[in-house]
Amino acid sequence: MSASQDKPRVSRLIGGIAESATLKVDAKAKALKAEGRPVIGYGAGEPDFPTPDYVVAAAVAACSDPKNHRYTPAAGLPELKQAIATKTKRDSGFEIDASQVVVTNGGKHAVYAAFMTIVDPGDEVILPAPYWTTYPEAIRLAGGVPVEVLADETQDYKVTVAQLEAARTEKTKALLFCSPSNPTGSVYSTAEIKEIGAWLKEHGIWVITDEIYEHLLYDDVDTGSLPVLCPGLRDTCIVVNGVAKTYAMTGWRVGWLIGPPDVVKAATNFQSHATSNVANVAQRAAIAAVEGDLSAVDEMKVAFDRRRKTMVSMLNEIDGVVCPVPQGAFYCYPSVKGLLGRDIDGAVATSSAELAEIFLEKAEVAVVPGEAFGSPGYVRLSYALGDEDLVEGISRLQKLLAQG
User: Could you give the number of structural domains in the chain?
Assistant: First the structure.
């Protein structure tokens, strides 16, 4: 065998990355639907609403303007960066300059750029679990080491400062903070955020705060933006956000990173080689979105709130399922530990991953197992789908699980 045959065809770095579990479940559900099976998918984290008309109109107009057919600055259109700065102050009270913004290819790319910018090989990043599937992979791609800190339903899936302190070492570089949370829908209170902020400041630890679900809050929950509640962290805080969830623009791929000048310069240099500028037509659409009012998300929120209550109620009617009430985003994250080991129409699951397979095969319902989020024994269901499908899918699970 030649020396070249001994070497892996795919690099070890990329070969070690796990496929996005949420996208995998969504793709499988769509494939089964294409075969004619009546699958109801709760996997994808995207609103079922269309992008607002005025945003689409801005994109249509942009297509006809030759200036959008050319390269533009790698960090984003100046008009969009200014619009993001204005929107950030309006929505969260965080006052920044447009020069502190890097427009990225979706929020996911902003997360990746943030870790690539501040993490060196061997640096540890504290990662509260349950976590969004991309976080640990992005940390590893940057050469970092994710240090998982698990919070279960007894603490509303929110980590405590005591847990963070127990995970801290001399190698700790940053904390990933996400509130409202994907996958749990949990929201940290103002007091909890301030306590975590004080801990970060005391130990000189960076924080990357994901605010993509900032507008999807319910029950008048008392919360806020971390750099606003903890202004002493401005120099060691990176905010990632985007238009995807607020304006039903998941497919437009426009996100952004906000940070201190040196981080923004480094992230811009990185993007100039990785992707260059985000598609100009999408950026023009994003300008219309962030400069507009929040009526679109307010309308979606009414529907999400209704669906949230319906889903929580129906899930908690199932013996063996415990579903806390989420206060943000559009996910429920019930514990299904009580279903493991139980006979379910002739099948027995020993893990939430196996349980998800049973749901898909026997009820034609697609959910994402907790293994994908670093917490086996749970499943994630998105309630960003139509009311009728939502009720039908949970009804199927109720019927299936009543047969045990």
Answer: 2
On whether both 308 and 378 belong to a single domain, the answer is yes
* 117 plus 16 within the same structural domain: no
Among candidate residues 362, 349, 360, the one with its CA nearest the CA of residue 321: 349
Same domain, 303 and 362: yes
Final residue of a structural domain among 263, 291, 319:
291
The structure's pTM equals: 0.94
- Shared domain for 363 and 383, answered yes or no, is yes
Residue numbers of the domain that contains 160: 53-291
Same domain assignment for residues 104 and 22: no
- Return the CATH number at 109: 3.40.640.10
Do 237 and 338 belong together in one domain?
A: no
- Averages of pLDDT over runs of 10 residues in the chain (404 residues) are 70 84 76 87 88 97 97 97 98 98 97 98 98 96 97 97 98 98 98 98 98 97 98 98 96 98 98 96 98 93 97 97 97 98 95 94 94 96 95 98 79
